[in-house]
Amino acid sequence: MPFVPHTSEDIASMLEAIGADSIEALFNEIPAELQVGELADIPTGMSEMEIAALMQSRARADGQPICFIGAGAYDHHIPAAVWQIATRGEFYSAYTPYQAEASQGTLQVLYEFQSMMSALTGLDASNASLYDGASALAEAVLMAVRANRKNKSTRILMPKALHPAYRRTVRSIVENQDIELIEVDFDPKSGQTPIACIEAAVGDADLAALVVAQPNFFGAFEDVDALTDWAHARNALVIGVVNPIALALLSPPGDWGAKGADIACGEAQPLGMPLSSGGPYAGFLCCRQEHVRQLPGRIAGRTLDLDGKPGFTLTLQAREQHIRRAKATSNICTNQGLLVTAATIHMTLLGAEGLERVAANCHANTRTLVEMLCEIPGVEPLFEGAVFHERVLRLPAPAADLLRSLAEHDLLGGLDLNADYPELGSAILVCATETRTQDEMRRYADTLAQILATR
Amino acid sequence: MLIYDQSRPGRRASAQAPLTQPEITEIPAGLRRRSRPALPEVSEMQAVRHYTRLSQKNFSIDTHFYPLGSCTMKYNPRACNSLAMLPGFLGRHPLAPDTHGQGVMACLHDLQEILKAVTGMHAVSLAPSAGAQGEFAGVAMIRAYHKARGDHARTEILVPDAAHGTNPASAVMCGFKAREIPTGSDGDVDLDALKAAVGPQTAGIMLTNPSTVGVFDRNIQAIARTVHDAGGLLYYDGANLNAILGKVRPGDMGFDVIHMNLHKTFSTPHGGGGPGAGPVGVSPRLEPFLPVPLVTFDGDAYHWQTERERPDSIGWLTAFGGNMGILLRAYVYARMLGREGMGRVADFATLNANYLMARLREAGFEAAYPERRASHEFIVTLKPESRQFGVNAMDFAKRLLDYGYHAPTTYFPLLVPECLLIEPTETESKEDLDGFVEAMIAIRREAQETPDLVKGAPHSMPVRRLDDVRAARQLDLAWRPGTSEDING
Ligand SMILES: Cc1ncc(COP(=O)(O)O)c(C=O)c1O
User: Rounded distance, CA B35 to CA B182, Å?
Assistant: First the structure.
């Protein structure tokens, strides 16, 4: 019996100790008419060898295309040590560290993760993860509404230059709580979100918070200092949505404007998490000290034990559902702990300089790729201005057709923007991380040129 | 010692980063960081040694019996991990076209079908990332259902007082008021109180069955009738599905919507806090509202369905639609169990729980519901020990650590004083259960003879009992440059 150790002698003696005739008898409080018979729709069991063969053939079926899609999930190198250590049974098969004394390993990892995220974002406190970047933004929005003491507004400004998947997720998570999400246009020339567009969207109304994505979905840089100061002058909080790799180069949210952003969140996937079809990843959420009691999710803190020796424990639990129930800051319980472990090891191995190198190589590769692609007649950047590691390109033929043809050559040429931004025409978002080689980029450009030439 | 304490300026693990650093000229200086973030500067070996040593400070299923009630800490088969981490699965971008995803989509589609069959639900979405997100999705669907019918008066979700804290919290996140229903002295929901509470304001009820007091609610059909007759829907919190897997199906009990914690019942790892996966299953009337994406099969190829095909969906819960790698692990586990293995999970989880309860009672411990069968878990109340020896449930829990057992869940559910909620799971052997009983007996003897030993426990862990009050009052949530030596010693 897979994963069940009982021998027939065990079963007999255990039933005797219970005083029951059979295992069936243990279910005698369940109304008989509710009990099911055979589950004919479920296949019979497989051995490890059989399931391995099936999974290997299915993994092969997904292919190994060369990926030039970013759009919120990035193909970075992951050091070998990261997952070898993260999948050690002691991390992999432990529960949430409720019994602190028997969970010091996990708790210290969480504390170190929080320290590193604080350092990257320039903010005082970090939680120990949420489900992903988009759901972290949803929690940040709810948090901002609670934390803004200057007004009672439930209005949130969300730029259209913020990832469409983030906007969708925020909408489905916060819309039952009477929060008004106001979308802000971007400048069609630069792809940035200027203050004029914000003022056009909101008028004089009170605001709970402004969401600022840096870089934004198009890869472009927002004028974060001006946006932050504008929001603070309007008594709104500032929520930064940031990429942790970009933060190795860019001004951290804590330094934005005169006072700094109040909250920062984002997707930790670039810190050692495989693409894996979209998850598991981890959302991070950081804030200034004054808002820490509104921060949702687990938080590890350092304290002392009975002997005065330092140790770690889950803290500020009075915010959480298991204590506060209906009045909790969030319903989140299980988070993305193992991914946090991976991210912590990843950041430790790379350090600030390593992350900076990754960021610089992504930036340079994307620039090279864009140059190569833009040699093709009709291919051109859609927005002017600097980008981090993604850029929007206009194509001379329908994007969906071209991307399909490229995929036939095992090239994932970028993300078609048509569904989310039909006003941009035939446009794609491309990305070349540090893992893309010159040869791969050349191959992409040559193949696209060929496809266009033979149309 | 923190990793930061081992940091030295200029040291680094250089092979792990790109060898070159292209110069950046394009990004305006005003947008650049003025100083490097304070991240550790260590060698690869220092990092490996540090995190390996930290791992050794943990209890885990792989190293210890971990009878944490309501959490289903059973063995996480290694094959589930290695097969979910095959390069083809790991390397797939979430926005890759369907042509480059037929393998993973086949697994997810199969998993949807298996979960439908084993729960008796009409349709399943794998999107929620954990149990609480499944609850959110389920209650949001209940809300969408009433709204679609123009029934705007339903503002309340009923929640038994034994419910997990996520239940009322999820109800509130969906814009409802959570109203508590008491549990009767026999552990079942107080049916009269329920009847008095339902009405035109009732949107639904959230139930865990077997409940968190470790018994199967015998009145489930009457509960379903009462709530349905009042126009409300039934939500099943599947955290305890392990107890009835392959034996009884929530769909047959009358539930309209359920979530499953795959990181419990389907043995995906808990990872020191997550990730999990909390798929939701629904009856036909809620199907249009399922969260996206879903995988469909047209007889030829697999496709993702999004809000385009499902306009009434409650929408996306994460950017890319769920914890795919965890779903793959659950799939491998489900295929290894097969149809014959599902019921066996419930059989042996229940056998182990009832055996452990019988042994502990025989040893003189007080079961909270002695007249009842245990489901896959049960509650021991240490009220007598606490009264006699002044040693409480937390002291027992901490002392168990010294004996090499992770503590059961303590002080949950809140309605039983000095409670230990004990869930052995089906993967533990009789010898391990016997060892746990011996430890409990030994600790009670210590409580009588040397109570301070128990009250001061644990004694053999990396730290002794921690000052939680200090942790919350003198917040230290992140290391800062220059603060290390003095605090850390
Ligand atoms: C009864 C019950 N309901 C809900 C949950 C929440 O599930 P998750 O932690 O996966 O969000 C838990 C988990 O601890 C639980 O035990």
Answer: 57
Alpha helix locations (H) across A87-148?
89-92, 104-121, 133-147
A167/A133 Cα distance (integer angstroms): 11
pLDDT digits (tens, 9 = 90+) for A129-173: 999 999 999 999 999 999 999 999 999 999 999 999 999 999 999
pLDDT digits (tens, 9 = 90+) for A43-86: 999 999 999 999 999 999 999 999 999 999 999 999 999 999 99
DSSP H/E element including B381: strand B378-381
Q: In chain A, what are the domain boundaries?
A: 66-78+351-453, 80-346
CATH topology of domain A66-78+351-453: Aspartate Aminotransferase, domain 1 (3.90.1150)
For residue B409, give the DSSP letter: E
Interatomic CA distance for residues A30 and B347, integer angstroms = 13
Check for a shared fold between B79-336 and B347-471. no
Give the residue from A47, A354, A438 showing the smallest Cα distance to B83.
A47
Averaged pLDDT, A101-105? 98
Backbone angles phi, psi at A214, to 5 degrees: -135, 115
Say yes or no: CB of residue A333 within 6 Å of ligand 1: yes
B149: which 2 tokens? 């019918």
Architecture of the domain whose range is B79-336 = 3-Layer(aba) Sandwich (3.40)
Q: Which architecture does CATH list for B347-471?
A: Alpha-Beta Complex (3.90)
Alpha-carbon distance of B177 to B202, in angstroms, equals: 10
Residue A379: what are its φ and ψ, rounded to 5°? -95, 125
Q: Is the pTM of this model over 0.80?
A: yes
CA of A334 to the centre of ligand 1 (A): 7
A80-346: CATH topology: Aspartate Aminotransferase; domain 2 (3.40.640)
pLDDT of residue B483: 64
Residue ranges per domain, chain B? 79-336, 347-471
B209 lines ligand 1 (CB under 6 A): no
Residue of A nearest to B307 (CA): A168
**pLDDT tens per residue across span A180-200:** 999 999 999 999 999 999 999
Q: Note whether B52 and B44 are within 8 A (CB).
A: no
The reply to whether residue B18 touches residue A434, judged by beta carbons under 8 angstroms, is yes
* Best residue of B73, B76, B318, B474 to probe chain A, by most A CBs closer than 10 Å: B318
ipTM: 0.98
Pairwise CA distance, residues A142 & A296, whole Å: 9
Q: Report which residue type is found at B137.
A: A
Cβ pair A239, A137 in contact under 8 A: yes
Rounded to whole angstroms, the Cα distance separating B46 from B269 reads: 27
| Phi, then psi, of B336 in degrees rounded to 5 | -70, -40
Burial of A52 (0-12, 13-18, 19+ CB in 10 A): middle
Residue A424, token pair as written in the block: 């941009």
Contact present, B47 and A348 (Cβ < 8 Å): yes
pLDDT band at B484 (very low <50, low <70, confident <90, very high): low
Which of A8, A9, A42, A417 should we substitute to test contact with B (largest number of B Cβ atoms within 10 Å)? Answer: A42
Q: Indicate if the pLDDT at residue B485 is higher than 80.
A: no
On chain B, the residues whose CB falls within 8 A of the CB of A273 are none
Half-sphere exposure of A135 toward its Cβ, with a 13 Å CA cutoff? Answer: 32
